[in-house]
Amino acid sequence: GRKPANPAFWWVSDEGEEVKWSFEELGSLSRKAANVLCEACGLQRGDRVIAVLPRVPEWWLLNVACMRAGIVFMPGTSQLTAKDISYRLQASKAKCIITSDTLAPAVESILPGSQLLKSKLLVGRGSRDGWLNLKELL
Predict the structure, then answer these.
(1) Cα(50)–Cα(53) distance, integer angstroms
(2) β-strand partners of 75
(3) Is CB count within 10 Å lower at the N or C end of the chain?
């Protein structure tokens, strides 16, 4: 028999939940995520994206997707305050922000001051008005 391929990505949560992607799956998912960024979010090569996420599988997926699409991925820790996020949005001229459903309220508090932001992408199972959901779009 054939030996199973080594995973390209293997993530384990604190609760023991595992996500394993082969190189083929990571390639396919990252192409789909790049299409989400370009089509649903309206981003182009050279545009900037801020990701305020904990280290969930989507963090790595979006990182690879941005490389594929030529989009600048700017990671931010989930410990950033609203003031920190606001500064990063203004200084970077980011056109998209990506965050989790638990961090979205803090992000929403500073969005009225951001004129360049085109889209808001939510990672998680929840939904919010005015936000695109990555899982649904994939």
Answers:
(1) 9
(2) 51
(3) N
- The pTM (predicted TM-score) of the whole model is 0.90
Tell me: the pLDDT tens digits for 42-96? 999 999 999 999 989 999 999 999 999 999 999 998 898 888 999 999 999 999 9
Run of H or E including 8: none
Furthest-apart CA atoms within the chain: distance in Å: 59
Q: Is 101 inside a domain boundary?
A: yes
Which domain CATH number covers 25?
3.40.50.980
96, β-bridge pairs = 49, 119
Count of structural domains within the chain: 1
Please list the alpha-helical segments (H only) found in the chain: 23-35, 57-69, 82-92, 104-108, 134-137
Q: Where residue 126 falls among pLDDT bands split at 50, 70, 90?
A: confident
Whole domain around residue 51: which residue ranges?
A: 7-136
Residue 2 belongs to some domain of the structure: no
